[in-house]
Design goal:
Blueprint lengths: L1 H7 L9 H4 L3 H17 L14 H13 L3 H15 L8 H5 L1 H10 L9 H13 L10
Helix pairs in contact: 3-4
């Protein structure tokens, strides 16, 4: 991840990660952090990348690896399975309920001024994964 970030800044040889490469660095790092917590901690609440027993650098490396290897769809499926296992009452299935903190963050971010068009490939994976689970509580930007 360090080589990728430095490459984005023009230092050293860039490491290509197609899903992240077109994004501004701040956006990409925010997504890496969120995906790292999602993949490592699963269906949980957001406490910031420094708020877990796993060190922040490991969460970030994990998120980067998930995105670099194209495993975001699989990580979302795993969190959804955790949701199904932990579900104790009937709640409407929304991005928030099926993906925990990640779904709540995604929905807010996707409709905010912080969403950038270069992040669309990432967003499309999340939206398509939710749609396969018949969750459509987000208006898709055209």
């Amino acid at each position: 991840m360090n080589r990728w970030a430095l490459g984005k800044l023009g230092v050293g040889d860039p490491v290509p990660v197609p899903i992240l490469d077109g994004m501004p660095l701040w956006t990409a790092l925010n997504i890496v952090n969120r995906v790292g917590v999602l993949a490592a901690e699963g269906y949980t609440c957001w406490r910031g990348v420094d708020g877990y027993d796993t060190p922040a650098h490991q969460l970030q490396a994990n998120g980067f690896r998930v995105l670099q290897l194209g495993l975001l769809d699989q990580a979302l499926d795993e969190v959804y399975e955790q949701y199904l296992t932990a579900k104790t009452r009937k709640l409407a299935e929304t991005l928030r309920t099926i993906y925990g903190f990640f779904g709540q963050w995604f929905k807010i971010w996707y409709h905010s001024k912080h969403f950038v068009e270069q992040a669309r490939p990432f967003a499309e994976i999340v939206i398509a994964n939710a749609a396969r689970k018949s969750v459509f509580d987000i208006e898709v930007k055209k």
